[in-house]
Amino acid sequence: MYQSIHRLYHHHCLSKIFQPVNLKPKDSNVKKDEPMSLSQKLLVETGIISLRSNGMFALLPLGQRILKKLMMIIDEEMISVGAQRLTLPLLTSADLWKITGRWNSTGQELLSLQDRHNREYVLSPTHEEAITSLLRDVYPLSFRQLPLKLYQITSKFRDEMKPRFGLIRCREFVMKDLYTFDESEAKAIETYSEICNAYDNIFQRIGVPYIKVAGDCGNIGGSFSHEYHYQAAIGEDTLLVCHGCQEATNIQLLSDSVNAVCSKCGSDMATITGIEVGHTFLLGTKYSEPLGGCYQNKRGKPEAAHMGCYGVGLTRVMAAVVEVLTTSDNIIWPWEIAPFKVCIIGPKEGSLEAGVTRWVNHLAKVLSSLPGYEDDIVVDDRHRLTIGKRVLEARRTGYPYIVVVGKKAQEDVPMFELIHTMTDESCYLSHHMLITHMRGAA
Amino acid sequence: MYQSIHRLYHHHCLSKIFQPVNLKPKDSNVKKDEPMSLSQKLLVETGIISLRSNGMFALLPLGQRILKKLMMIIDEEMISVGAQRLTLPLLTSADLWKITGRWNSTGQELLSLQDRHNREYVLSPTHEEAITSLLRDVYPLSFRQLPLKLYQITSKFRDEMKPRFGLIRCREFVMKDLYTFDESEAKAIETYSEICNAYDNIFQRIGVPYIKVAGDCGNIGGSFSHEYHYQAAIGEDTLLVCHGCQEATNIQLLSDSVNAVCSKCGSDMATITGIEVGHTFLLGTKYSEPLGGCYQNKRGKPEAAHMGCYGVGLTRVMAAVVEVLTTSDNIIWPWEIAPFKVCIIGPKEGSLEAGVTRWVNHLAKVLSSLPGYEDDIVVDDRHRLTIGKRVLEARRTGYPYIVVVGKKAQEDVPMFELIHTMTDESCYLSHHMLITHMRGAA
């Protein structure tokens, strides 16, 4: 039978990558006086994303790579808790949203359209109605198949009044949404805490410090929820975090008179701002009852499932990690989602050290063969540019490591400069030391 | 740094898979007298897809697995011709479609909406306008970076007057769309033929016989095009194929008086019906001129790029391969995109041969460790059902191989039944012979 003969383990050449750099957002929909976040500015200027319409971005090839890595982390953690991936249509019949009342309660943020027969559809911001009606339609699903955990990673839509900060608050975005179905509230709470563990794994793997807080249920509804935040100055949520026990709450949950002392341990509470990147909800039967989302119980009877729903905003994470880690005009990517882990830069064409160019391909080949780097090495082969110019661009794009093959590669024991962009440290290493170091970093 | 500790190489358990079987399409939008295709019936009844609204389907977990495998084939073949993946917004500003005239010419198939500020957007069926305006906005892109090949795999929308045959003609579907940009018509033709080679690779890897025909440019426009078809009775395109030289044409290209003799070799031509699953177009400057999609030429001046566009309908392929290969009520999947390659079935609980159940997990473990089967083994662990019932279901779902651990596994040299569903052959093999056979099949 036909076998895949393609192995993707090779290095990439920057000259071939579509990364239109140093662009200012040109879209006329962006007003000149609108606040722009650091992530928005840097992701656009480094050619990772591109504004296409007001609040809508294209993920360019580097952005697509980051998205793919986030998806992989999420897929693995979802599979590890037994969740199954599917794809629901992006269009959901408005009839379902009318049954739950969200057709009216969501307001102008809901994008909708009519088809040629004047039937109304929602351009779904979330899929509680859609997934619950799926459960209804496949009845009888036995109690033996519970807990059922179904998720998707798809584009979602929200007609923000004021889209801003680039991928932080846009109108079309990529979200992972998971829905769980259980027999009882007690079992739904068990599932809920299992998923929260998976969320901790996801955010730990992304590798950027996060804060989990008791959350606001908002328009989704349900009995309780938690939010996952990245602390950032531009964050739109205000959180109260205890200095002592790390207990944290979204301030929206509290009454007007905010108590600045932790109820749990008595320590002082600090007010910080956060970007919400994940949200978990225990929904109860809010959706399954009106929509008839039932499983077949032990007595063979239909019974409304106890649901949970759980979101991670992938495109928002992409921008929020930049807000957290980046302090200058150089992006800092967390290791696990960097578009490439290593950028190798050789001498300029016609320069005195041009003879060492052969080291570039050699290093690219050796590094690509190390576990953890298979598809993650890029060579900036634009040899008409100086080393300095290319190092600047590589720093700006935020590759965790930059390897420079320059003058010192001509020495008897060739030495290569290794730059660690997160700590802004650099040193010269021999071939052997370089490989050993990179193996240790993986 | 945090390391991925999750390996996905383990077997799956059918009891945990959300596969609601034996369902009839219930959606009230499906009229009782509407023609239903075999693929539509079987994909729904085996719980691979589910009709959600008129012409809109959910891909359930097995369908999602098939989609993922198709994506992998396409990603590999696209990368091998240097194409880069990105994601454009699904919503495209109607202004762009007005510039090219397609806002009016597309007619009622175009789904569109207005946002809260009454700005119009297209729910994109295809992205020529969007990608060309991207090229315009990133100017100056140097001639050195051409040919530029950008693709995406995303949901597309078409408000079909009569959605039918399930995934064959639906209103929301998954498509790979590639766009290429070249300096001249001559170079664009070179790129075109390179992409056609990649398409041949894609369809050869999928493994179902296909027909490449000179095509109709339709509403996309351009100077010439080719179509990739699967021959099937329900196909909506009529093709004229030469018995001698295999030259083929879409009948839409011909004048009224169809010549039944091949112009190339003089042989008789046969009329067949095909399902279009891929389409390639040489566009010229049809989009780049009105939209200003220019690169910077050798003299530093803007010049309209010569474009090509190339589509593969992934969800349509899923259904069309079923139409081609399936002759009974049992789906036949091509090897490379089967939801699982092997289904292992053990004895019923409490049956005389229940003692051999230990072989089930053993075989699952050994087979999962063979190259090519890492994530592709499923165990039907619903041991309350008879072997016979589960074999029937496995045949119906279309796993290429079924391994039955039954009575003969009790013998001194345990024997396992191996069923090859495509040829409907079966035989009893020892442990060693079974593993050797499966290694050979990969």
**What's the name of the CATH homologous superfamily of the largest domain in chain A?**
Bira Bifunctional Protein, Domain 2
- Based on CA inertia axes, which overall geometry of chain A fits? elongated
**What's the total count of β strands of chain A?**
22
The total tally of domains of chain A equals 2
> What oligomeric assembly is this protein in?
homodimer
CATH topology of the largest domain in chain A: BirA Bifunctional Protein, domain 2
User: Quick one: which chains have the greatest interface?
Assistant: A-B, 78 and 76 residues
The CATH architecture assignment of the largest domain in chain A turns out to be 2-Layer Sandwich
Mean pLDDT of chain A: 92
Radius of gyration of chain A: 25 Å
What's the N-to-C terminus distance of chain A? 35 Å
Strand fraction band of chain A? 25-35%
Helix and strand content put the structural class of chain A at alpha+beta
The CATH class label of the largest domain in chain A is: Alpha Beta
Largest sheet of chain A: 9 strands, mixed
Which parts of chain A are unreliable, with pLDDT below 50 for 5 consecutive residues or more?
1-8
